[in-house]
Structure formats: C-alpha cells, structure tokens
Amino acid sequence: MNASPTLRKIVHIDMDAFYASVEQRDDPRLRGKPVVVAWRGARSVVCAASYEARKYGVRSAMPAVRAERLCPRAIFVPPDFPRYRAVSRQVREIFSRHTDLIEPLSLDEAYLDVTENKLGLPSATAVAKTIRDAIRGETQLTASAGIAPNKFLAKIASDWRKPDGQFVIRPHEVEAFLTPLPVGRLPGVGKVMEGKLLDLGLATVGQLRHFDPAELERRFGRWGRRLHELAQGIDEHAVVSERPTLQISAEDTFANDVLLGETVPTIRRLVEKVWSAAIKDPERIGRTVILKLKTADFRLLTRSHTPPQPPASLDELLSQSLSLLERVELPSRTRYRLVGVGLGNFRDADELPPQSQLFSSA
Questions:
Q1: Is 109 an annotated catalytic residue?
Q2: Which pTM does this prediction carry?
Q3: CA 135, 12, 56 angle in degrees (round to 5)?
Q4: Which of 16, 12, 14 is nearest to 169 (CA)?
Q5: pLDDT tens digits for the chain (362 residues)?
Q6: Which of 109, 215, 242, 329 is catalytic?
Q7: Which residues are part of a known binding site for Mg(2+)?
Q8: Binding site: residue ranges?
Q9: Domains in the chain, start-ordered, CATH in brackets?
Q10: Does residue 143 contact residue 14 with C-beta atoms inside 8 Å?
C-alpha cells in the first residue's frame, strides 16, 4: 500500500525525558532517582519526569501535588529553561549536518526531511542512527527516532522503542502497522473524539479505514475526512523549516487568586517577555494586543485591541495591554487565578505603512 502519493523520508527525533535527563546528566546525585522537573506549589504542573518517576505514573502536565502523591520520594527540581535551550541548540546543530529541512516542535523534538541527506548516507534509518549516536556522544543524552514516509507516522514510530531506540515504518508496511492501532493513537484524537468514534463502533484504525468517509465528513466536518486519510496512512504535510511568527504570548498562574488591579505587576513582567521575543524578528510585526484572564472558577476571558499602528516600543505594548483591563466587566470582587499577555496578527514589516517607526528603543 502506498501511504502517500509523495514518498518522502521523514525522521522524527524525540529526546528522552529531556529536561529531567539534562538534570540527571548535570547532577550525578540525581542519576537513577525519580526526578520531577517542576516548581513546588499547589498550582505548579510537571514539566518533565525521569523514567524512574514515570514508573509511578508521573507524567508531564500533571499537577505537581498529584505527582508528589504518586511518588513521595520524587526529587523536585525547578526548571532551568536557558540550560535546556542551550542543549536544544546543540542538538539542532547535529540535525543541520544532515538536512536543512528541520521543523522543531519544541525544545526536545523535531521533524527532519532526509529524502536527500547531506552526507549521502544510504537510508533514512542510517541517518537516524547517526544522529542519535552524535547526540549521545556530544551531549551525553539519548534520543529516540521514528522513520516513515510522512510526519504523522514518523511521530508515532518514535514512541515505539523509547527510550533510546528507533523504529522504521516502510511504505509497504503502513497498512499492517496502522490496522490494529487504537483510534486514540491518531494525532488529534483525544478522549472526547475517541468516545465519539467508539460510539460508531470504531475502536481501531483498521475499522476507521473501512468506514464510509462521506459519513465521517457529515458527522465531523473536514476533520472527519482528515481522520479517514490518516487511517490510510496519508499525510501530505511537508516539513516546514521556517514557520512565520503568528503569535507570541506569555502567561502566569498566581499562587493565590488576586483581584483585577493586583494583576498589574505580573502583566508588566509578561509584557517584557513578549516584547523581548517579538524584537528578535524585526521582519515580522505584531498588530494585535491580547489580554487573557482566568477567574478563580476557571472562566476564561480574552480581550484584544488592534491599534491603527502596531506597538512600537515596550512602553506602548504595556500601555495597550493595561488599557484592556478596562474592558473586563466582571464584578470588582472577582478574583483571578491566571493572567496572560499576547501579541498576535503578525505581518511582514514591508506590508505595514512606512511612516511607522517600529521597534524603537523602549
């Protein structure tokens, strides 16, 4: 079975328990111990967990208090993102020896299109092994790899022999590989969608493949058609090495719920983060200022404003962000658990009026 009209050689590289592994590498006392990368606190969530902690059921994005209950002996380490980014850059440099078609998904994973590779290695499998060997030798960390004709299959495959392994799905193996998988393994199928598919008697990818695609589209719209394509192993999305900036945002959860006016110091700090990120790419200009709030009872509010001219300085972005507080019309006694600031609606600089003196010094 041809998985796709366009046969590519895609590698998905996923660092193994990345943040926790960096901590264990840099502190020998943590090796072999259940390490949880998270700030302690009632509102904190787990950024990463070592494999020793995962044995107890600890997972990323889990509340830290729950992780502590599951694994009372866990060693909590606060995250050090500058250090993780430095290691990520090392890994990215290793990727670039083999291809320029690199699409990072996060600090610890990326797609690589190695249909043609710079070193002339005989196969994508050989490229993946060479990359993993270099990562081990140069960073003392391990990575897993999936090799397949397209992105979604490569991502599934990289989980198959974790940690420190690789798995290849060749074009003629796609149907046999996918058929027995639970539908929940398809990208974008969460618990809710999985339940809807189970209600239709579709528990496996093979059953989904043989279901009427028109009926899937009638029930779920374009997503239904996409599901049917995935069930056949079809994914035409190319590896995109440079994605244009669409939105930059930062948010924070308070240790204790606060009144609206008490969010101002945090908004100031978040605006500084957003502005620092925005000025790194002067060719892309954000036009819309966004404020996000979550109340103590988890109600989510967003307010946005697109001024005639984009914010041209840190002070302008701060002023416009704070002005959005005036458009929050909840009772004054309302308390908030989270605040976020964003800059969106990015455009290329040459699309904007020339009189705009953008990114002047703050």
A1: yes
A2: 0.71
A3: 80
A4: 12
A5: 444 456 899 999 999 999 999 999 999 999 999 999 998 777 788 989 999 999 999 998 888 999 999 999 999 999 998 899 999 999 999 999 999 999 998 889 999 999 999 999 999 999 999 999 999 999 999 999 999 999 999 999 999 999 999 999 999 999 999 999 999 999 888 888 899 999 999 999 999 999 999 999 999 888 899 999 999 999 988 998 876 677 899 999 888 999 999 999 999 999 999 998 888 777 788 999 999 999 999 899 999 999 988 898 889 999 999 999 999 999 999 999 999 999 998 887 655 554 333 443 33
A6: 109
A7: 14, 108
A8: 14, 108
A9: 10-16+82-174 (3.30.70.270), 20-79 (3.40.1170.60), 179-231 (1.10.150.20), 247-351 (3.30.1490.100)
A10: yes
